[in-house]
Amino acid sequence: MSPKLPVWAPGREGYFGDFGGAFIPEMLHETFAELRAAFENACDDETFWQSYVDVTAGYGGRPTPVTFCENLTRKLGGARIYVKREDLNHTGAHKANNVMGQGLLVQRMGKKRVIAETGAGQHGVATATMAARLGLECTIYMGEEDVARQHPNVFWMRQLGAEVIPVTDGTRTLKDAINACLRDWADSMADTHYVMGTVCGPHPFPQMVTYFQSIIGQEARAQMLALAGKLPDRVYACVGGGSNASGIFTGFLDDLSTELVGVEAGGKGIETGEHAARLAGGKGVPGVAQGYKTVFLQNEEGLMQDTHSVAAGLDYIGIGPMLADLHEQGRVRFESATDQEVVDALRLTMRSEGIIPALESSHAFAAAFREAPSLSDDDAILINQSGRGDKDIFTVADALDDEGWKTFIRETAARYAR
Ligand SMILES: *Cc1c(COP(=O)(O)O)cnc(C)c1O
């Protein structure tokens, strides 16, 4: 069944409460109108959602299971702990859902080429995979700094047939890649679609990406009823741009007995200024940037702040407008977890359950572990594991100061130096 989405603010299409909108240059107006029409048309077509479900099943491995974590439950001694396994998607994270959904829209619009920006490279790899599968041309914009830091993903994007363009403007990171991508789109919109990776940016992207990701919550709600015999008392999800959180939360929005908890990057601690907690720390300020209105981490002059997280996917200044509104309404509670808490939660999960969550997802685990012991064994909590941690081997090995890993890197480098 096609998902139901939260309603707009009265008379303000594209706004969730006070947040959202589409602040775009005039030359993109027509392209956005075309995209809105294509999306609305798809939503009205009863076969579209089913074709999306079929693609995510046959190609992506859905439905992903919910796993009861008996060992963690026993060790922490409180609520029963369940995990929604988005790590089992093709390419290892929830990003694959949205990308395949937008791929189907591209086919309906008859476009031949997709472009995307990527920070850590996960969205770039997912987009390149979809483009290869659907026979589309693909260009990925990535800050030169990120190309150097995230080389394994650059390698795979190129092997998948995508062109990766290193962006040399500004700080040579994600925000510069977004600008380069928008410039490309302004010139190429007739045959090109911009695949937005999260629930941010101008309307209709926040709504569209939520629509595709809501498959997570739709599955999870039915799975919890079958497996736990009840709805979860709390649902935890990490929040970068907010797409995995929006996806799982929409399944439970009408279930007021289910508390929804978004977990942001506490980095080195909110008091240090090196974090990406927009809502949990109360440091974010409403503003307009990158084509939409939301709560951003910015200074008094409105300049965007530098953010930090051990998890590249949570290292972002803005947040999905729907989540900003749900926070204001008090429907979603926001917490943060520090880099250290996150690495500890990752280690405990690996050792207890043989599950390797991504560093991003480990934020949700860290907050859930903090709260589970104070709940009772009648309570059930659900953690959204947005992705798998294999990609984080460089960062995690470094954080754990693993000697064997360092020797391996040294010897590999020496082999290339000869
Ligand atoms: C990209 C990413 C995130 C953050 O993005 P959201 O839009 O906030 O979901 C979280 N987890 C994983 C594994 C990611 O790759």
Automatic annotation (TrEMBL):
GO cellular component terms attached to this protein's record: cytoplasm
Molecular function via GO: tryptophan synthase activity
EC number annotated for this UniProt entry: 4.2.1.20
Top-rank taxon, per record: Bacteria
Domain Tryptophan synthase beta chain-like PALP stretches: 60-384
Pathway field: Amino-acid biosynthesis; L-tryptophan biosynthesis; L-tryptophan from chorismate: step 5/5
Annotated positions of the N6-(pyridoxal phosphate)lysine modification: 95
Keywords: Amino-acid biosynthesis, Aromatic amino acid biosynthesis, Lyase, Pyridoxal phosphate, Tryptophan biosynthesis
InterPro entries the UniProt entry points to: Trp_synth_b_CS, Trp_synth_beta, Trp_synth_beta/beta-like, TrpB-like_PALP, TrpB-like_PALP_sf
Family: Belongs to the TrpB family.
Name of the protein: Tryptophan synthase beta chain
Lineage, opening ranks: Bacteria, Bacillati, Actinomycetota, Actinomycetes, Pseudonocardiales
Gene assigned in the entry: trpB
